[in-house]
Structures are given as C-alpha cells and as structure tokens.
Specification:
Layout: E1 2-10, E2 13-19, E3 24-29, H1 35-45, E4 61-68, H2 73-81, E5 91-98, E6 104-108, E7 111-113, H3 115-125, E8 126-129, H4 131-135, H5 140-150, H6 154-177, H7 181-201, H8 207-219, H9 221-236, H10 244-259, H11 266-292, H12 297-317, H13 321-339, H14 341-387, E9 394-405, E10 408-417, E11 425-426, H15 427-430, H16 433-451, E12 455-459, H17 467-480, E13 485-489, H18 493-496, E14 501-510, E15 513-520, H19 523-535, H20 541-553
Parallel strand pairs: 3-13, 3-14, 8-12, 12-13
Antiparallel strand pairs: 1-2, 1-4, 4-5, 5-6, 6-7, 9-10, 10-11, 14-15
Helix pairs in contact: 5-14, 6-14, 7-13, 8-12, 9-11, 10-11, 12-13, 14-16, 16-17, 19-20
Length: 556
C-alpha cells in the first residue's frame, strides 16, 4: 500500500508530506484548493508526463516521492524480475524535475530507472481511476481487456500471440519466394555470375596483406641486397681491412686477459662473448639471405595483377577479402534457395498451414473462454450496479468474429440496457456521466480481486451523482477498502463520510504567495467539513447535526 507521499514545489504546494493508512482515505476541499494537484503528483511519481510549468513559481526543481509498504511477495518477485528489490516489503519511488532543462530523473529504491521501468513497477502497485477513465468505457477496445483480465486469459493470449507471430513469419518468407518467374530467373543469373566470379578468384583471408608485403620487398630488392652485402662486408671484413667480428673477438680476448687480474672486467668479457655469438648468427643469416634473394621481375607483375584482381572484387562485393567471402556465403545460400525454391515453397506452405491451424485453434479457444468470462463478468457487474442504485440496468456483450489479428479473432463490446424491455445498446449512445462513473466503479470492484494491485485511487468517481446513489458509492468504496487500500478525492459528503481517514485540502495566502496545505481531520473537524460540503460556508447547527448523523450512520 501507499504509506507516504512527499511533494515539493508542485504548483502551489511548497512542501507536503502525507501519511496514508490501510482502508479508505478520503480527501475533500473547496473548488480550486488543489485537489487535482494531489492526483497529478501521484501520477507524476508513477510515470506520467511532467511539464516545467508544474514547478512552483520561483523554484528551480520539483520533487515527488512515494513510499510503499507491505508490498506482497508476488509483487516483489515481479519487481525483482525488472531488476529492483523491495527490502522488508518497502519500496521508495521518486521523481525529480529540473526547471531549467525540463528533464526528469526517476529512481526506484534509490537507483536510477527509465520512465518505462517506472511505469512498469508503478502499475504493479497502484491503479488510478480519474474522471477521464470513465470515457474509456466508450471504447470497445478496452472492453476486451476487461474480459481478458477478469477471465485470467493472459497466458492463453500470450500463446495465441506467439503462434500468430510465427504464422506471419512463415507467410512473409513464403511471399518472398513466390516472386514472378522472370524476376526469379534474372536474380538467379546474377547470383550465378557473382558466385562464379568470386569462386574462380580462390581468395584466402589475409592474402592481400601478404601480397602487399611481398610487393614492397621486390620493389626495394636492390636496396635490400645492397644493404645485406654491406652488412656482410662489415661483419667479415676484406683483404684490406679487418671485419667487426674479428675485432670484437680480439676485444673479448683482451678482456679475458685483463679480467684475470681485474675482477670488475670479467663481467664485460662475458657480455662481449654474448655479442660475438649474436654477430656470428647475424653474419650467417645475412649470408643465407644473400644467397636466396634472387628476384624475377615477372614475379612482381604476377603480384600486381593479383592485387588488381582483389581490388576489383572489393569494389563489387566488399571492403575486404573477409567481407567478399561472407557475401559469397550469403548469395550462395540465396542461389541454393532459388534453385530449390519449389521444395522450399512446399516446406514453407506446410509450415504456414500448420501455424494457421494452430492460430485458429487457439483463437477458437480464446473466443469461447471470452464468451463464458463475458457472461460471468456482465452478471457480476450487474450485481454491483444494482447495489449502486442502478437495479434496472442490465449488461451484455456483443461478440463478433473477425480476421485473426494480434489480439485474437473476435471483438467484444459492452452493451447496456437502462430499462427493462429496452434493446441493449453501446454505452456511448445512452450512458450519462454519472452512469459511466458508477459503471466504472462497478467494473473496478469486480476486477479488484483479479489484478492484485494493493492501492486503488479514485479521483471524483462520484461526478454526476448525488443523494442515495452517492451514499451507495461511498459504501461500495468502503467495502472495497476492506481488502485493499483505497484513496478517494471526492466532492460529496455522502462519500467522504465513509472514509476511515479524512484529510482536507485547503488554500491560503501568506505574504502575497498562495499555499496549498493538506490537513488530517479529527472527528469534530470532519463534522464541520461535511457540513461545509453540504451547505456551503454558512454552517448551521442543523447542518452540523446532519453531518454528525451522517458520520455515525457510516460507522465513524
């Protein structure tokens, strides 16, 4: 349930901290006092859009946070699947809006979260119903969602959706293959030419780099051979001069001689000895390279021709040999599929037929279960409406077949007959605002045991009603609050009287600034507030007596 709501710099609310309790929490206040701000703040922390103009004048940011406690274990598991946790059954959700940039920061349990995750988590905790939600009853698309939720058909709907997706994939693959014959032959000719050209080149990955290195060596062969010859002469010497090898060998001998008497020189003798071995190895390698470096100018032509061939293929099929070979694999597979397209078409057609049969089978099961759920749902909602002073109203559903789509192969629409003997008609044609509010309350009451949401919020669900009907709405909200937390913003005393907890939203002006405060009421204060709602500012002893009696009859 929602335990605490903290609001800072939202509209005319500077700072407010509201504590909520189990049961029915009601909020009342004069028109313009800021009742809508409370709902807007809750909507904001649950992921609704926030605009910079919601920030209190003169302030740079707005903050809203909601603390939930006694979070059920089933909900905690779903929250964990989203990557968050509710320690000790508590979860803090917060939202901060920057007035300069217009950007908001969301946090779940103190950790940053995206808006989508915030909405997903919030949807597990709170269900808000405002006046505009009653208009959703006029949309037949919402009626189907009511029935699927009431009948617990989410699992079946998911299986149907998976089968429908596979059917579409098979249909798309089949359509791609069933091209006209002339286009197919043209495509095959092109693919055969491309595969032949790439195959004839016999490319190997890394070949281009190796050929480029060989070309650079051949192009500089004269310089390389000249340098190797000079290196060999320097190492071995000639008739008129001594080579480096013999000089270093002589240096080592002298160091050995001196090292017999000067200990510090022995280390250098060993180092020079290592150098002699390295120079001898280098001299042998240089000699071998000189013997092997016999370059044929025609070899350079072959390399240049091969690199030119690779360059032309790269311009056509990829920026590297690796990409060319990958493209070859792709077009070879496509060519094979086109070559054996008749067999592939037959296979895909079989898959499509199987998936279509599966879709239709699941669609029929879905339609059947929807029909049974709709009958029970209509009966249950009818009972609730009878309690809410609409005993003559009967509900039914119109179910029609349609082509299979993502949500099934049928449509459902809620129909209403306001009086006995009248033909059921769509809600949009005959339902008034007050009737829509009570119908939505009845629907919420019926669905309450199915959705598992711990907190229900109603924003003026009593709009358009009065008298006995308003009293019944208050009693129904109180009954709903027996199994979950209910928060209600109301303008009717008959509804407010049933609240287990009652707070007043009031507006004051201090030092030229407007402030909205939320004040919990004692029983005595509740009597005065109910009297004000019923009779305006001129509160009389009779109106106070009536308000007190109203609270007593409501059990408060």
């Amino acid at each position: 349930m929602l335990s605490q709501l903290y609001i800072e710099n939202i509209a005319v609310i500077r700072k407010a901290s509201l504590d909520f309790a189990p049961g029915l929490n009601v909020f009342t206040g004069e028109t313009g006092a800021g009742k809508s701000i409370l709902i807007n703040a809750i909507n904001a922390v649950l992921g609704a859009r926030m605009h910079r103009d919601i920030i209190r004048s003169g302030e740079s940011r707005a903050v809203v946070s909601a603390l939930f406690s006694r979070v059920p274990e089933t909900v905690i598991r779903e929250i964990r699947e989203l990557g968050y946790d509710a320690e000790d059954g508590q979860l803090l959700i917060s939202r901060e809006l920057d007035g300069e940039t217009g950007k908001s920061v969301c946090r779940i349990g103190g950790r940053p979260a995206t808006m989508a995750l915030l909405r997903s988590v919030a949807g597990l905790l709170i269900d808000i119903h405002g006046q505009h939600d009653s208009q959703a009853l006029l949309s037949p698309e919402r009626h189907l969602a009511f029935i699927d939720g009431f009948g617990g058909l989410e699992g079946l709907l998911e299986r149907y959706g998976d089968a429908y997706g596979r059917m579409l994939q098979a249909k798309e693959a089949l359509q791609e293959l069933q091209m006209d014959e002339s286009h197919k032959l043209q495509r095959m000719d092109l693919l055969q030419y491309q595969t032949s050209e790439i195959s004839a080149a016999s490319l190997t990955d890394g070949e281009e780099e190796e050929l480029t290195a060989q070309r650079d060596i051949i192009r500089n062969a004269e310089k390389i051979v000249g340098a190797l010859g000079m290196m060999y002469d320097l190492l071995q010497g000639g008739e008129d001069r001594e080579g480096i090898l013999s000089q270093v060998e002589q240096l080592r001998e002298e160091l050995d001689t001196a090292g017999r008497y000067v200990e510090d020189l022995r280390e250098y003798g060993d180092r020079v000895g290592d150098a002699v071995y390295s120079l001898e190895e280098l001299s042998s390698s240089v000699r071998t390279w000189l013997d092997e470096y016999n370059f044929d100018p025609r070899q350079l032509d072959d390399i240049e021709n091969r690199l030119d061939q690779i360059y032309r293929l790269k311009k056509k099929y990829g920026s590297s040999i690796g990409e060319i070979l990958q493209y070859y694999e792709t077009i070879s597979q496509e060519l094979e599929e086109l070559t054996f397209s008749d067999q592939t078409v037959e296979r895909l057609q079989k898959e499509l037929d199987e998936e279509t049969d599966r879709v239709m089978e699941l669609a029929r099961e879905l339609s059947s279960r929807r029909r049974h759920a709709a009958e029970e749902f209509a009966a249950r909602v009818g009972q609730e409406l009878s309690f809410l002073d609409m005993p003559q109203v009967t509900l039914s559903f119109s179910q029609r077949e349609k082509e299979p789509g993502p949500g099934g192969a049928d449509t459902l629409e809620l129909l209403i007959s306001a009086n006995p003997g009248e033909e059921p008609r769509p809600l949009a044609r005959i339902a008034s605002g007050g009737e829509l509010s009570r119908i939505m309350l009845a629907i919420k009451s019926v669905l309450a045991d199915r959705d598992g949401v711990g907190t229900l919020i109603f924003d003026e669900v009593d709009a358009g009603v009065s008298g006995r009907a308003a009293q019944k709405i208050g009693l129904k909200l109180h009954q709903a609050a027996a199994s979950r937390q209910v928060i209600c913003v109301t303008h009717l005393a008959q509804v407010a009287a049933y609240g287990d907890y009652h707070s007043k939203i009031c507006k004051t002006v201090e030092d030229g600034r407007t402030y909205t405060r939320i004040q919990p009421l004692s029983r005595e204060e509740r009597v005065k507030e109910l009297a004000r709602i019923m009779g305006g500012e001129n509160i009389t002893p009779i109106s106070l007596q009536n308000a007190d009696e109203m609270l007593t009859l409501a059990g408060n």
